[in-house]
From TrEMBL:
Keywords: Lipoprotein. It comes from Celeribacter indicus. The keyword Lipoprotein applies. Pfam families: TPR_19. This is Lipoprotein. InterPro entries: TPR-like_helical_dom_sf (IPR011990). The lineage of its organism: Bacteria, Pseudomonadati, Pseudomonadota, Alphaproteobacteria, Rhodobacterales. PROSITE patterns: PROKAR_LIPOPROTEIN. It comes from the Bacteria.
Length: 286
């Protein structure tokens, strides 16, 4: 729990300045091609939301070097580093952001997020504690729930997860996290319910589907639930269910499910084949 492709941006344009017309006798100033001018085109938003993460990092590094006092560019760098899977560098960038005189509460929440990704739960909790209770956002409560989970304070975790789910129109991710929290506690029926809700909100969230199967397998339910799935997903879920059955001691059922996974997969399912061979070898040697 403690979780497009390269776009080539061609900026082609010609800024036509009428050098001949000087109605007030003033000089026509040279066009400003710095980040300040380019930002008017929304380039920063494009780089942050659409560009390749590493390309985005390079852009914001250049931009912050040119304009070291601009908070929006510092934020862009911190977000880009996180997208580029550089949590330590992102945390350092967010630390600089929150030190800015114009930083807000959302910045502290984002800093806490980066700290959690580095595994520094204590520092993340300190940042969240510095955010007033009146700052009620989805991300703040999702992170609060994760911190509560780290302390195994299940009552607080449940409360925060519930609040976070109510503050977003796309709760699949937080419902999946909440379900995983319950799964680790051994509350399998509650976890199953939350994973099923997550899949309802986002039928393409395979992680929730896989977790749903794990929760069912932990209860001895060795059939797949009714939900949308591709043939490959079905094979992978059958494999997960088979492993869950083996772990529970229902080896024969598990082997049957793994065989079904191999037969279902549209291609060669190497992981399942290896597991089945290992199981059959253990049985023959036993």
């Amino acid at each position: 729990m403690r979780n497009i492709s390269m776009i080539t941006l061609a900026l082609a344009g010609t800024l036509a300045l009428s050098a001949c017309q000087k109605p007030f006798g003033g000089d026509v100033r040279r066009a400003d091609t710095s980040v300040n001018a380019i930002d008017g085109t929304g380039l920063s938003d494009i780089m942050l939301n659409a560009a390749d993460p590493n390309e985005s990092v390079s852009y914001f590094l250049r931009a912050t070097n040119e304009n070291p006092d601009r908070l929006d560019l510092q934020r862009g760098l911190a977000k880009s580093l996180l997208r580029a899977n550089q949590p330590d560098a992102a945390a350092a960038a967010w630390e600089k952001v929150v030190a800015h005189k114009d930083a807000g509460m959302d910045d502290r929440v984002d800093y806490a997020d980066a700290l959690i990704r580095t595994g520094d739960w204590k520092a993340a909790e300190a940042q969240l504690d510095s955010v007033p209770p009146t700052h009620e956002t989805y991300k703040r409560y999702r992170l609060e729930a994760m911190v509560a989970d780290s302390h195994q304070d299940w009552r607080k975790a449940d409360s925060f997860y519930q609040t976070a789910a109510g503050l977003t129109t796309r709760p699949a991710g937080v419902l999946n996290n909440w379900g995983y929290s319950k799964l680790t506690r051994g509350e399998y029926a509650g976890a199953e319910k939350l994973f099923a809700q997550a899949v309802t909100y986002d039928p393409g969230l395979f992680t929730a589907k896989n977790n749903l199967v794990l929760a069912r397998g932990a209860q001895g339910k060795y059939d797949l639930p009714v939900m949308d799935m591709t043939q490959t997903e079905r094979a992978q879920l059958l494999y997960t269910l088979g492993l869950a059955a083996v772990k529970a001691g229902d080896v024969s059922i598990g082997k049957g499910l793994i065989r079904e996974a191999i037969d279902t997969h549209p291609q060669h399912f190497e992981a399942a084949v290896r597991s089945l061979r290992a199981l059959e070898t253990n049985v023959s040697n036993g």
